[in-house]
Protein backbone atom coordinates (compact mmCIF):
# COMPACT_ATOMS: atom_id res chain seq x y z
CA UNK A 1 0.00 0.00 0.00
CA UNK A 2 1.33 3.46 -0.87
CA UNK A 3 2.40 5.74 1.95
CA UNK A 4 -0.25 8.30 0.97
CA UNK A 5 -3.05 5.75 1.24
CA UNK A 6 -1.67 4.53 4.59
CA UNK A 7 -1.69 8.07 5.91
CA UNK A 8 -5.29 8.51 4.72
CA UNK A 9 -6.29 5.45 6.72
CA UNK A 10 -4.34 6.59 9.80
CA UNK A 11 -5.89 10.05 9.52
CA UNK A 12 -9.36 8.55 9.86
CA UNK A 13 -8.51 6.80 13.15
CA UNK A 14 -9.64 8.21 16.50
CA UNK A 15 -6.27 7.40 18.09
CA UNK A 16 -3.86 10.39 17.98
CA UNK A 17 -0.82 9.50 15.79
CA UNK A 18 2.41 11.39 15.12
CA UNK A 19 5.00 10.65 12.45
CA UNK A 20 8.43 11.82 13.56
CA UNK A 21 11.71 11.75 11.65
CA UNK A 22 14.86 10.40 13.25
CA UNK A 23 16.05 13.94 14.02
CA UNK A 24 12.97 14.52 16.15
CA UNK A 25 10.92 16.81 13.89
CA UNK A 26 7.22 16.02 13.46
CA UNK A 27 6.54 15.34 9.77
CA UNK A 28 2.86 14.52 10.06
CA UNK A 29 -0.02 14.22 12.51
CA UNK A 30 -3.47 12.77 11.99
CA UNK A 31 -6.63 14.77 12.65
CA UNK A 32 -7.11 13.20 16.11
CA UNK A 33 -3.59 14.30 17.13
CA UNK A 34 -4.06 17.87 15.77
CA UNK A 35 -7.11 18.49 17.95
CA UNK A 36 -5.59 16.93 21.04
CA UNK A 37 -1.82 16.42 21.33
CA UNK A 38 -0.75 19.20 18.98
CA UNK A 39 -2.72 21.86 20.84
CA UNK A 40 0.02 21.78 23.47
CA UNK A 41 2.72 23.12 21.11
CA UNK A 42 3.23 24.86 17.72
CA UNK A 43 3.09 22.04 15.22
CA UNK A 44 5.33 23.59 12.56
CA UNK A 45 8.16 24.53 14.93
CA UNK A 46 8.17 21.41 17.15
CA UNK A 47 11.46 19.51 17.27
CA UNK A 48 12.87 16.68 19.34
CA UNK A 49 14.21 19.21 21.84
CA UNK A 50 10.67 19.69 23.06
CA UNK A 51 8.98 17.22 25.42
CA UNK A 52 5.78 15.51 24.48
CA UNK A 53 2.87 16.79 26.58
CA UNK A 54 1.79 15.11 29.82
CA UNK A 55 -1.49 13.28 30.08
CA UNK A 56 -0.62 10.63 27.50
CA UNK A 57 1.24 7.36 27.28
CA UNK A 58 3.25 6.88 24.07
CA UNK A 59 3.93 3.75 22.03
CA UNK A 60 6.70 3.95 19.40
CA UNK A 61 6.57 1.96 16.13
CA UNK A 62 9.83 2.02 14.16
CA UNK A 63 10.27 1.59 10.40
CA UNK A 64 6.53 1.39 9.73
CA UNK A 65 6.49 4.11 7.05
CA UNK A 66 10.18 4.30 6.30
CA UNK A 67 13.61 3.51 7.73
CA UNK A 68 14.06 6.96 9.30
CA UNK A 69 10.51 7.51 10.51
CA UNK A 70 8.87 6.67 13.83
CA UNK A 71 5.12 6.39 14.25
CA UNK A 72 4.06 7.46 17.75
CA UNK A 73 0.75 6.22 19.09
CA UNK A 74 -0.66 8.62 21.72
CA UNK A 75 -2.93 7.05 24.31
CA UNK A 76 -4.65 9.49 26.68
CA UNK A 77 -4.38 8.62 30.39
CA UNK A 78 -7.64 8.29 32.38
CA UNK A 79 -9.04 11.54 33.67
CA UNK A 80 -11.51 12.51 36.32
CA UNK A 81 -12.58 9.84 38.85
CA UNK A 82 -9.98 7.27 37.69
CA UNK A 83 -7.13 9.70 38.26
CA UNK A 84 -8.60 10.65 41.63
CA UNK A 85 -8.87 6.99 42.56
CA UNK A 86 -5.23 6.39 41.59
CA UNK A 87 -4.14 9.39 43.67
CA UNK A 88 -6.29 8.24 46.60
CA UNK A 89 -4.87 4.70 46.46
CA UNK A 90 -1.34 6.08 46.34
CA UNK A 91 -2.03 8.28 49.36
CA UNK A 92 -3.57 5.37 51.27
CA UNK A 93 -0.57 3.18 50.43
CA UNK A 94 1.80 5.90 51.68
CA UNK A 95 -0.22 6.31 54.85
CA UNK A 96 -0.23 2.51 55.39
CA UNK A 97 3.55 2.44 54.91
CA UNK A 98 3.97 5.26 57.45
CA UNK A 99 1.61 3.50 59.88
CA UNK A 100 3.47 0.19 59.67
CA UNK A 101 6.88 1.81 60.04
CA UNK A 102 5.75 3.98 62.97
CA UNK A 103 4.52 0.91 64.90
CA UNK A 104 6.47 -0.11 67.98
CA UNK A 105 5.88 -3.74 66.98
CA UNK A 106 7.54 -5.80 64.29
CA UNK A 107 5.36 -6.29 61.18
CA UNK A 108 6.21 -9.23 58.95
CA UNK A 109 4.25 -10.10 55.79
CA UNK A 110 4.68 -13.25 53.69
CA UNK A 111 2.86 -14.94 50.84
CA UNK A 112 1.02 -18.24 51.10
CA UNK A 113 4.28 -20.19 50.76
CA UNK A 114 6.07 -18.38 53.59
CA UNK A 115 8.24 -16.17 51.35
CA UNK A 116 8.89 -12.76 52.92
CA UNK A 117 7.20 -9.91 51.03
CA UNK A 118 7.54 -6.92 53.35
CA UNK A 119 8.92 -6.03 56.77
CA UNK A 120 8.77 -2.74 58.62
CA UNK A 121 11.64 -0.66 59.97
CA UNK A 122 11.25 -2.17 63.45
CA UNK A 123 12.68 -5.43 62.11
CA UNK A 124 16.01 -3.70 61.59
CA UNK A 125 16.24 -3.10 65.34
CA UNK A 126 15.45 -6.75 66.05
CA UNK A 127 17.61 -8.44 63.41
CA UNK A 128 20.19 -5.74 62.64
CA UNK A 129 21.98 -6.04 59.27
CA UNK A 130 19.85 -9.04 58.33
CA UNK A 131 16.88 -6.80 57.48
CA UNK A 132 18.23 -6.07 54.01
CA UNK A 133 18.26 -9.75 53.19
CA UNK A 134 14.95 -10.91 54.66
CA UNK A 135 12.67 -9.98 51.76
CA UNK A 136 12.43 -12.87 49.34
CA UNK A 137 13.56 -15.48 51.89
CA UNK A 138 11.45 -18.33 53.23
CA UNK A 139 10.51 -18.26 56.91
CA UNK A 140 11.17 -22.02 57.00
CA UNK A 141 14.81 -21.41 56.00
CA UNK A 142 15.14 -18.51 58.45
CA UNK A 143 13.74 -20.72 61.22
CA UNK A 144 16.26 -23.48 60.45
CA UNK A 145 19.06 -20.90 60.51
CA UNK A 146 17.95 -19.74 63.95
CA UNK A 147 17.17 -16.15 62.87
CA UNK A 148 13.94 -16.60 64.80
CA UNK A 149 12.51 -19.71 66.44
CA UNK A 150 9.85 -20.93 66.33
CA UNK A 151 8.45 -19.14 63.27
CA UNK A 152 4.88 -18.08 64.00
CA UNK A 153 4.30 -17.70 60.25
CA UNK A 154 5.34 -21.31 59.65
CA UNK A 155 2.93 -22.42 62.37
CA UNK A 156 0.08 -20.45 60.75
CA UNK A 157 0.84 -22.06 57.38
CA UNK A 158 0.83 -25.54 58.96
CA UNK A 159 -2.42 -25.12 60.91
CA UNK A 160 -4.37 -22.56 58.83
CA UNK A 161 -5.39 -20.43 61.80
CA UNK A 162 -4.10 -17.68 64.09
CA UNK A 163 -1.12 -18.63 66.23
CA UNK A 164 0.60 -16.93 69.19
CA UNK A 165 3.98 -17.99 70.52
CA UNK A 166 6.92 -16.73 72.56
CA UNK A 167 9.71 -16.44 70.02
CA UNK A 168 13.50 -16.35 70.36
CA UNK A 169 15.73 -14.38 67.96
CA UNK A 170 19.31 -15.01 66.91
CA UNK A 171 20.59 -12.21 69.17
CA UNK A 172 18.82 -13.53 72.29
CA UNK A 173 15.73 -11.34 72.23
CA UNK A 174 12.32 -12.64 73.29
CA UNK A 175 9.27 -11.68 71.23
CA UNK A 176 5.59 -12.31 71.80
CA UNK A 177 4.55 -13.00 68.20
CA UNK A 178 1.08 -13.43 66.69
CA UNK A 179 0.43 -14.53 63.12
CA UNK A 180 -2.84 -14.12 61.20
CA UNK A 181 -3.76 -15.82 57.90
CA UNK A 182 -5.53 -14.08 55.00
CA UNK A 183 -7.38 -16.53 52.75
CA UNK A 184 -8.20 -16.78 49.06
CA UNK A 185 -11.81 -17.48 48.10
CA UNK A 186 -10.93 -21.19 47.71
CA UNK A 187 -9.69 -21.41 51.32
CA UNK A 188 -5.95 -21.42 50.57
CA UNK A 189 -3.72 -18.94 52.37
CA UNK A 190 -2.94 -15.77 50.40
CA UNK A 191 -0.91 -13.84 52.98
CA UNK A 192 0.31 -14.22 56.55
CA UNK A 193 0.64 -11.03 58.54
CA UNK A 194 2.45 -11.35 61.85
CA UNK A 195 3.34 -8.79 64.44
CA UNK A 196 5.70 -9.22 67.35
CA UNK A 197 6.40 -7.22 70.49
CA UNK A 198 9.83 -7.18 72.05
CA UNK A 199 9.10 -7.88 75.72
CA UNK A 200 12.11 -5.78 76.71
CA UNK A 201 10.16 -2.75 75.53
CA UNK A 202 7.53 -3.39 78.18
CA UNK A 203 10.11 -2.00 80.63
CA UNK A 204 11.43 -5.54 81.12
CA UNK A 205 14.89 -6.91 80.60
CA UNK A 206 15.76 -9.30 77.80
CA UNK A 207 17.00 -12.79 78.43
CA UNK A 208 20.42 -12.77 80.05
CA UNK A 209 20.30 -15.51 82.64
CA UNK A 210 23.10 -16.06 85.10
CA UNK A 211 22.39 -18.72 87.69
CA UNK A 212 24.28 -20.37 90.50
CA UNK A 213 25.01 -23.30 88.18
CA UNK A 214 26.60 -20.86 85.73
CA UNK A 215 28.92 -19.76 88.52
CA UNK A 216 30.03 -23.38 88.73
CA UNK A 217 30.90 -23.33 85.05
CA UNK A 218 27.88 -25.18 83.63
CA UNK A 219 26.03 -23.65 80.70
CA UNK A 220 22.27 -23.34 80.58
CA UNK A 221 20.22 -24.72 77.72
CA UNK A 222 17.78 -22.13 76.39
CA UNK A 223 14.25 -23.25 77.35
CA UNK A 224 11.65 -24.20 74.80
CA UNK A 225 9.48 -21.19 73.86
CA UNK A 226 6.06 -21.13 75.47
CA UNK A 227 3.12 -22.10 73.30
CA UNK A 228 -0.07 -20.41 74.46
CA UNK A 229 -2.78 -20.78 71.82
CA UNK A 230 -5.34 -22.06 74.32
CA UNK A 231 -7.36 -19.45 76.25
CA UNK A 232 -6.40 -21.07 79.58
CA UNK A 233 -2.67 -20.82 78.89
CA UNK A 234 -2.97 -17.31 77.48
CA UNK A 235 -4.59 -16.12 80.69
CA UNK A 236 -1.84 -17.79 82.69
CA UNK A 237 0.96 -16.18 80.67
CA UNK A 238 -0.75 -12.77 80.69
CA UNK A 239 -0.78 -12.80 84.49
CA UNK A 240 2.82 -14.06 84.59
CA UNK A 241 3.99 -11.24 82.31
CA UNK A 242 2.09 -8.64 84.33
CA UNK A 243 3.44 -9.80 87.70
CA UNK A 244 6.99 -10.05 86.31
CA UNK A 245 7.18 -6.25 86.34
CA UNK A 246 6.87 -6.26 90.12
CA UNK A 247 8.67 -7.89 93.05
CA UNK A 248 5.46 -9.44 94.41
CA UNK A 249 5.60 -12.99 95.72
CA UNK A 250 4.10 -15.51 93.29
CA UNK A 251 2.57 -18.90 94.11
CA UNK A 252 2.42 -21.29 91.14
CA UNK A 253 -0.20 -24.03 91.40
CA UNK A 254 -0.85 -27.02 89.19
CA UNK A 255 -0.43 -30.74 88.68
CA UNK A 256 2.91 -32.47 88.38
CA UNK A 257 4.54 -31.83 85.01
CA UNK A 258 2.51 -28.79 83.93
CA UNK A 259 5.65 -26.64 83.72
CA UNK A 260 5.62 -24.66 86.97
CA UNK A 261 9.41 -24.35 86.96
CA UNK A 262 9.36 -22.98 83.39
CA UNK A 263 6.74 -20.38 84.23
CA UNK A 264 8.79 -19.40 87.29
CA UNK A 265 11.90 -19.06 85.15
CA UNK A 266 9.92 -17.02 82.62
CA UNK A 267 8.82 -14.59 85.34
CA UNK A 268 12.45 -14.18 86.41
CA UNK A 269 13.68 -13.65 82.85
CA UNK A 270 11.02 -11.02 82.20
CA UNK A 271 11.70 -9.12 85.43
CA UNK A 272 14.15 -6.38 86.31
CA UNK A 273 16.12 -9.07 88.15
CA UNK A 274 16.90 -11.01 84.96
CA UNK A 275 20.59 -10.11 85.21
CA UNK A 276 20.68 -11.31 88.80
CA UNK A 277 21.07 -14.91 89.97
CA UNK A 278 18.38 -17.53 89.54
CA UNK A 279 18.51 -20.00 92.43
CA UNK A 280 16.20 -22.99 92.63
CA UNK A 281 15.73 -25.45 95.46
CA UNK A 282 13.37 -28.42 95.57
CA UNK A 283 12.03 -28.75 99.09
CA UNK A 284 10.94 -32.35 98.45
CA UNK A 285 14.25 -33.67 97.13
CA UNK A 286 16.51 -32.69 100.04
CA UNK A 287 16.40 -34.62 103.35
CA UNK A 288 14.74 -32.69 106.13
CA UNK A 289 17.92 -32.76 108.23
CA UNK A 290 19.89 -30.98 105.47
CA UNK A 291 17.23 -28.65 104.13
CA UNK A 292 17.77 -25.89 106.72
CA UNK A 293 21.51 -25.68 106.06
CA UNK A 294 20.89 -25.71 102.28
CA UNK A 295 18.43 -22.85 102.56
CA UNK A 296 20.01 -20.64 105.21
CA UNK A 297 23.68 -21.74 105.33
CA UNK A 298 25.83 -22.26 108.41
CA UNK A 299 28.87 -20.90 110.22
CA UNK A 300 32.09 -22.87 110.79
CA UNK A 301 31.87 -25.53 113.46
CA UNK A 302 28.07 -25.41 113.60
CA UNK A 303 27.66 -29.18 113.45
CA UNK A 304 29.63 -32.34 112.77
CA UNK A 305 30.60 -32.60 109.12
CA UNK A 306 30.24 -28.88 108.48
CA UNK A 307 32.80 -27.15 106.28
CA UNK A 308 35.60 -25.48 108.16
CA UNK A 309 34.94 -22.13 106.47
CA UNK A 310 31.15 -22.33 106.72
CA UNK A 311 28.76 -22.11 103.79
CA UNK A 312 26.24 -19.56 102.47
CA UNK A 313 22.72 -20.85 101.90
CA UNK A 314 20.56 -20.67 98.78
CA UNK A 315 18.85 -17.59 100.18
CA UNK A 316 22.13 -15.64 100.28
CA UNK A 317 23.16 -16.87 96.84
CA UNK A 318 19.91 -15.44 95.44
CA UNK A 319 20.74 -11.88 96.60
CA UNK A 320 19.81 -9.46 93.82
CA UNK A 321 17.85 -12.13 91.95
CA UNK A 322 15.10 -14.71 92.38
CA UNK A 323 14.73 -17.65 94.79
CA UNK A 324 12.45 -20.38 93.47
CA UNK A 325 11.06 -22.70 96.15
CA UNK A 326 9.73 -25.71 94.29
CA UNK A 327 7.42 -28.12 96.13
CA UNK A 328 6.90 -25.62 98.93
CA UNK A 329 4.17 -27.87 100.34
CA UNK A 330 6.92 -30.27 101.49
CA UNK A 331 8.68 -27.62 103.61
CA UNK A 332 8.81 -28.94 107.23
CA UNK A 333 6.78 -27.06 109.83
CA UNK A 334 9.82 -26.07 111.88
CA UNK A 335 11.31 -24.29 108.84
CA UNK A 336 8.08 -22.59 107.82
CA UNK A 337 8.45 -20.07 110.66
CA UNK A 338 11.96 -19.17 109.54
CA UNK A 339 10.73 -18.80 105.95
CA UNK A 340 7.97 -16.47 107.18
CA UNK A 341 10.60 -14.27 108.87
CA UNK A 342 12.52 -14.13 105.60
CA UNK A 343 9.43 -12.99 103.69
CA UNK A 344 8.59 -10.34 106.26
CA UNK A 345 12.01 -8.96 107.16
CA UNK A 346 14.19 -9.93 104.15
CA UNK A 347 16.85 -11.00 106.62
CA UNK A 348 18.40 -14.42 107.20
CA UNK A 349 20.54 -16.00 109.93
CA UNK A 350 22.97 -18.80 109.20
CA UNK A 351 22.91 -21.84 111.47
CA UNK A 352 25.25 -21.17 114.39
CA UNK A 353 25.30 -17.39 113.81
CA UNK A 354 24.00 -14.62 116.06
CA UNK A 355 23.77 -11.92 113.38
CA UNK A 356 21.31 -11.55 110.56
CA UNK A 357 22.14 -10.76 106.92
CA UNK A 358 19.97 -8.54 104.73
CA UNK A 359 19.03 -10.10 101.39
CA UNK A 360 17.36 -8.50 98.39
CA UNK A 361 15.45 -11.36 96.77
CA UNK A 362 12.20 -12.07 94.99
CA UNK A 363 10.50 -15.34 96.01
CA UNK A 364 8.50 -17.57 93.68
CA UNK A 365 7.00 -20.73 95.18
CA UNK A 366 5.33 -23.69 93.50
CA UNK A 367 3.39 -26.75 94.60
CA UNK A 368 1.07 -29.44 93.28
CA UNK A 369 -0.61 -29.76 96.66
CA UNK A 370 -3.73 -28.05 98.00
CA UNK A 371 -2.19 -25.67 100.54
CA UNK A 372 -5.59 -24.52 101.82
CA UNK A 373 -6.45 -28.07 102.86
CA UNK A 374 -3.00 -28.43 104.43
CA UNK A 375 -3.63 -25.25 106.43
CA UNK A 376 -6.98 -26.64 107.67
CA UNK A 377 -5.24 -29.90 108.62
CA UNK A 378 -2.50 -28.02 110.49
CA UNK A 379 0.27 -29.21 108.16
CA UNK A 380 1.04 -25.76 106.72
CA UNK A 381 1.17 -22.42 108.52
CA UNK A 382 -1.71 -20.12 107.60
CA UNK A 383 0.40 -16.95 107.97
CA UNK A 384 3.05 -18.34 105.61
CA UNK A 385 0.37 -19.40 103.12
CA UNK A 386 -1.07 -15.88 102.96
CA UNK A 387 2.40 -14.39 102.60
CA UNK A 388 3.14 -16.68 99.65
CA UNK A 389 -0.30 -16.38 98.08
CA UNK A 390 0.03 -12.73 97.00
CA UNK A 391 -0.37 -13.55 93.28
CA UNK A 392 -1.50 -17.16 92.72
CA UNK A 393 -1.22 -18.51 89.17
CA UNK A 394 -3.00 -21.75 88.30
CA UNK A 395 -1.23 -23.50 85.40
CA UNK A 396 -3.70 -25.62 83.42
CA UNK A 397 -3.02 -29.32 82.78
CA UNK A 398 -2.33 -30.37 79.22
CA UNK A 399 -5.77 -31.99 78.85
CA UNK A 400 -7.32 -28.52 79.38
CA UNK A 401 -5.21 -26.84 76.68
CA UNK A 402 -5.75 -29.13 73.70
CA UNK A 403 -5.29 -26.19 71.29
CA UNK A 404 -1.61 -26.31 72.21
CA UNK A 405 -1.06 -29.98 71.32
CA UNK A 406 -0.38 -29.45 67.62
CA UNK A 407 1.97 -26.44 67.96
CA UNK A 408 3.75 -28.14 70.88
CA UNK A 409 4.32 -31.14 68.61
CA UNK A 410 5.99 -28.87 66.05
CA UNK A 411 8.15 -27.17 68.68
CA UNK A 412 9.36 -30.40 70.29
CA UNK A 413 9.96 -32.22 67.00
CA UNK A 414 12.18 -29.36 65.87
CA UNK A 415 13.93 -28.99 69.22
CA UNK A 416 14.89 -32.65 69.62
CA UNK A 417 15.82 -33.11 65.97
CA UNK A 418 18.29 -30.23 66.34
CA UNK A 419 19.47 -31.39 69.77
CA UNK A 420 20.29 -34.92 68.58
CA UNK A 421 21.40 -33.91 65.04
CA UNK A 422 18.62 -35.90 63.37
CA UNK A 423 16.27 -35.25 60.47
CA UNK A 424 13.02 -33.81 61.76
CA UNK A 425 10.11 -36.26 61.39
CA UNK A 426 6.40 -35.41 61.26
CA UNK A 427 3.43 -36.88 63.08
CA UNK A 428 0.77 -38.69 61.12
CA UNK A 429 -2.59 -36.95 61.50
CA UNK A 430 -3.94 -39.97 63.39
CA UNK A 431 -1.19 -39.47 66.02
CA UNK A 432 -2.38 -35.92 66.64
CA UNK A 433 -5.92 -37.21 66.99
CA UNK A 434 -4.78 -39.74 69.59
CA UNK A 435 -2.87 -37.02 71.47
CA UNK A 436 -6.10 -35.03 71.72
CA UNK A 437 -7.92 -38.03 73.21
CA UNK A 438 -5.26 -39.02 75.73
CA UNK A 439 -5.52 -37.55 79.25
CA UNK A 440 -1.75 -36.90 79.73
CA UNK A 441 -1.48 -37.58 83.48
CA UNK A 442 2.17 -36.52 83.32
CA UNK A 443 1.24 -33.34 81.44
CA UNK A 444 3.90 -31.42 79.49
CA UNK A 445 6.75 -33.45 80.97
CA UNK A 446 5.19 -36.70 79.73
CA UNK A 447 4.47 -35.23 76.29
CA UNK A 448 7.99 -33.81 75.94
CA UNK A 449 9.67 -37.07 76.96
CA UNK A 450 7.49 -39.06 74.57
CA UNK A 451 8.33 -36.81 71.60
CA UNK A 452 12.05 -36.98 72.36
CA UNK A 453 11.91 -40.77 72.55
CA UNK A 454 10.06 -41.01 69.23
CA UNK A 455 12.47 -38.62 67.48
CA UNK A 456 15.38 -40.81 68.58
CA UNK A 457 13.91 -44.27 68.05
CA UNK A 458 11.75 -43.91 64.89
CA UNK A 459 13.72 -44.06 61.64
CA UNK A 460 10.79 -43.18 59.39
CA UNK A 461 10.04 -39.62 58.26
CA UNK A 462 6.41 -39.93 59.41
CA UNK A 463 5.68 -41.18 62.94
CA UNK A 464 2.73 -43.58 62.77
CA UNK A 465 0.22 -44.52 65.50
CA UNK A 466 1.87 -47.93 66.03
CA UNK A 467 5.04 -46.10 67.11
CA UNK A 468 3.21 -44.47 70.03
CA UNK A 469 3.33 -45.76 73.63
CA UNK A 470 0.64 -48.37 74.45
CA UNK A 471 -1.19 -46.07 76.87
CA UNK A 472 -1.65 -43.41 74.17
CA UNK A 473 -2.62 -45.93 71.51
CA UNK A 474 -5.14 -47.56 73.84
CA UNK A 475 -7.32 -44.41 73.79
CA UNK A 476 -7.97 -44.76 70.08
CA UNK A 477 -8.44 -48.52 70.34
CA UNK A 478 -11.06 -48.10 73.03
CA UNK A 479 -12.90 -45.40 71.08
CA UNK A 480 -13.04 -47.48 67.90
CA UNK A 481 -13.85 -50.79 69.62
CA UNK A 482 -10.32 -52.13 69.22
CA UNK A 483 -9.05 -54.72 71.74
CA UNK A 484 -8.61 -53.60 75.35
CA UNK A 485 -6.25 -54.98 77.97
CA UNK A 486 -7.13 -57.91 80.23
CA UNK A 487 -5.42 -60.46 82.47
CA UNK A 488 -6.27 -64.19 82.46
CA UNK A 489 -6.66 -66.29 85.62
CA UNK A 490 -3.22 -67.78 85.13
CA UNK A 491 -1.70 -64.26 85.04
CA UNK A 492 -1.13 -64.18 81.28
CA UNK A 493 -1.66 -60.69 79.90
CA UNK A 494 -3.88 -60.51 76.85
CA UNK A 495 -6.10 -58.26 74.76
CA UNK A 496 -9.85 -58.71 74.69
CA UNK A 497 -11.60 -57.38 71.60
CA UNK A 498 -15.17 -56.11 71.39
CA UNK A 499 -16.40 -59.59 70.38
CA UNK A 500 -14.89 -61.15 73.50
CA UNK A 501 -11.98 -62.88 71.76
CA UNK A 502 -8.74 -62.92 73.78
CA UNK A 503 -5.53 -62.08 71.98
CA UNK A 504 -2.08 -62.68 73.60
CA UNK A 505 -0.14 -59.51 74.36
CA UNK A 506 3.21 -60.78 73.12
CA UNK A 507 4.52 -57.94 70.93
CA UNK A 508 4.65 -59.86 67.63
CA UNK A 509 1.26 -61.54 68.06
CA UNK A 510 -0.39 -58.30 69.10
CA UNK A 511 1.20 -56.33 66.27
CA UNK A 512 0.17 -58.95 63.69
CA UNK A 513 -3.35 -58.92 65.07
CA UNK A 514 -3.51 -55.16 64.75
CA UNK A 515 -2.20 -55.19 61.19
CA UNK A 516 -4.63 -57.91 60.10
CA UNK A 517 -7.52 -56.14 61.76
CA UNK A 518 -6.56 -52.84 60.16
CA UNK A 519 -6.30 -54.49 56.73
CA UNK A 520 -9.77 -56.00 57.10
CA UNK A 521 -11.18 -52.62 58.08
CA UNK A 522 -9.68 -50.90 55.04
CA UNK A 523 -10.78 -53.74 52.78
CA UNK A 524 -14.37 -53.57 54.04
CA UNK A 525 -14.59 -49.78 53.69
CA UNK A 526 -12.93 -49.88 50.25
CA UNK A 527 -15.74 -52.09 48.94
CA UNK A 528 -18.29 -49.44 49.87
CA UNK A 529 -16.40 -46.32 48.74
CA UNK A 530 -15.34 -44.95 45.38
CA UNK A 531 -12.53 -42.61 46.45
CA UNK A 532 -9.77 -42.32 49.02
CA UNK A 533 -11.28 -39.05 50.20
CA UNK A 534 -14.52 -40.83 51.07
CA UNK A 535 -12.60 -43.57 52.91
CA UNK A 536 -10.68 -40.95 54.89
CA UNK A 537 -13.93 -39.27 55.93
CA UNK A 538 -15.46 -42.56 57.14
CA UNK A 539 -12.38 -43.70 59.07
CA UNK A 540 -11.55 -40.26 60.45
CA UNK A 541 -8.01 -40.18 59.07
CA UNK A 542 -6.21 -38.08 56.46
CA UNK A 543 -6.38 -38.92 52.75
CA UNK A 544 -2.61 -39.40 52.64
CA UNK A 545 -2.93 -42.02 55.40
CA UNK A 546 -5.55 -43.88 53.36
CA UNK A 547 -3.34 -43.89 50.25
CA UNK A 548 -0.37 -45.15 52.26
CA UNK A 549 -2.39 -47.88 54.01
CA UNK A 550 -3.97 -49.15 50.77
CA UNK A 551 -0.53 -49.42 49.24
CA UNK A 552 0.85 -51.10 52.36
CA UNK A 553 -1.88 -53.78 52.33
CA UNK A 554 -1.93 -54.23 48.55
CA UNK A 555 -5.50 -52.97 48.21
CA UNK A 556 -6.89 -51.03 45.24
Account of the protein in words:
The chain is built from 21 helices and 25 strands. It starts with a helix and ends with a helix. The longest helix has 22 residues, at 81-102. The strands form 7 sheets. Strands 6-5-10-9-8-7 form a 6-stranded antiparallel sheet. It has a 6-stranded parallel sheet with strand order 11-13-16-19-12-20. The chain has a 4-stranded antiparallel sheet with strand order 2-1-4-3. The protein is elongated. Strand 1 (17-21) and strand 2 (26-29) form a beta hairpin. The protein has 4 domains: 3-76, no CATH class; 91-202, PAS domain (Beta-Lactamase, 2-Layer Sandwich); 210-394, P-loop containing nucleotide triphosphate hydrolases (Rossmann fold, 3-Layer(aba) Sandwich), CATH 3.40.50.300; 480-556, Orthogonal Bundle (Arc Repressor Mutant, subunit A), CATH 1.10.10. Residues 200-224, 480-493 and 495-507 have low confidence and may be disordered. It is an alpha/beta fold.
* Rg calc: 36 Å
How many domains is the backbone divided into? 4
Q: What structural category do the secondary elements indicate?
A: alpha/beta
CATH topology heading of the largest domain: Rossmann fold
Reading side by side through the largest sheet, how are the strands ordered?
A: 6-5-10-9-8-7
Count of alpha/pi helices: 21
Supply the CATH superfamily name of the largest domain: P-loop containing nucleotide triphosphate hydrolases
Distance between the termini: 69 Å
Spans of at least 5 consecutive residues whose pLDDT stays below 50 are 200-224, 480-493, 495-507
Tell me which CATH architecture of the largest domain applies here: 3-Layer(aba) Sandwich
Task: Report mean pLDDT, rounded to a whole number.
Answer: 78
Helix coverage percent of residues? 25-40%
Largest sheet: 6 strands, antiparallel
Overall geometry comes to elongated
> What is the number of beta strands?
25
Amino acid sequence: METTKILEVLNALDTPLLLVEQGGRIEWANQAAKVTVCTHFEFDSWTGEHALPEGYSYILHKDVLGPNLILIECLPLPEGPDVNNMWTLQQENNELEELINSSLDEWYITDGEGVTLRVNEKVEQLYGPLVGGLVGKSVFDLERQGIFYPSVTAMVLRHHKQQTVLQNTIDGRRLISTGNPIFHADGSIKRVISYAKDVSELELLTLNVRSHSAQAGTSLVRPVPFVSNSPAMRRCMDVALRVARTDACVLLLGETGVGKNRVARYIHEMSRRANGPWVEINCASIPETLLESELFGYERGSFTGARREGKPGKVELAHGGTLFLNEIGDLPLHLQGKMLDLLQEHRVERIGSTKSIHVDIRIIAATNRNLREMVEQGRFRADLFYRLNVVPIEIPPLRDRLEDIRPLSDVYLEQFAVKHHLVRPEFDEECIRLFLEYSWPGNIREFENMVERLVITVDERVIQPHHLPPEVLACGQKRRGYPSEAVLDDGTECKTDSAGAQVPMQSESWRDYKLNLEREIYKAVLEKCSSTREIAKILGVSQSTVVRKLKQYGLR
